[in-house]
Amino acid sequence: MSKQLSKDRLILVCNDDGIFSKGIQALADVAAEFGEVRVVAPDRQQSAVGHSITIMDPLRASPFKMASGLNGIAVNGTPADCVKLATDQLLDRKPDLILSGINHGSNAGINIIYSGTVSAATEGTILGFPSIAVSCMEFGEDADLSGCMEAARRAVSFVFKNGLPRGITLNVNAPGGPFKGIRWTKQGDSRYEDEYVLRKDPMNNPYYWITGRMEILDEGMEFDINVLNDGLASVTPIQYDLTAHKVFSTFSEMEI
Q1: Smallest Cα–Cα separation from 42: which of 145, 123, 125, 152?
Q2: pLDDT tens for residues 89-102?
């Protein structure tokens, strides 16, 4: 890759953990290997907000100096808000790629539905930009993100070399620690066995706190969660078209 080609690219970096997160700095470092980087991200933790957008309150964008010295923009909105606002108002030109992450916590299996990280990338895809979401299985802020960074690096290189079909987002996940390999995967089937625990606050008022565990329903190394549990990174092509096409072809021939 020539330096001139690299400088011609503009890469927008977002996340859902907040602009202050260690993960977004790591992803910005990877992005800088491929082009000019702009960071636009939420000004606070926005995990599990899904694809929500702000419609009843004003959005405000404020300059933010990141730990590395990189200048970013903090937005008082959701990850999807950040991508929409950045591409419409905050960037001086349209991005060549949108990266979201590195999230602290896996976004494989059913987590894709809830994830603000994945939704930021999906919003980029909806708007017509090649987009990648990147997540680490480790939640700790001190997690070793080196393997995730290498997985992201390979995914970015793949997209710049091959492009992505319209409507497709790459969802990258990796364990914490050194890089041990990467595979193409399908989204695994899973579900949460949720439990809401009743507690009392200091004023003796009741409140509920969600807990529970994930049940994995798929077997086989073609699924993201199983590949991750085997120590490898996974890359899953996902789409925002939720039509059940196989079922539709059957139902469309039936009277309703």
Answers
A1: 123
A2: 999 999 999 999 99
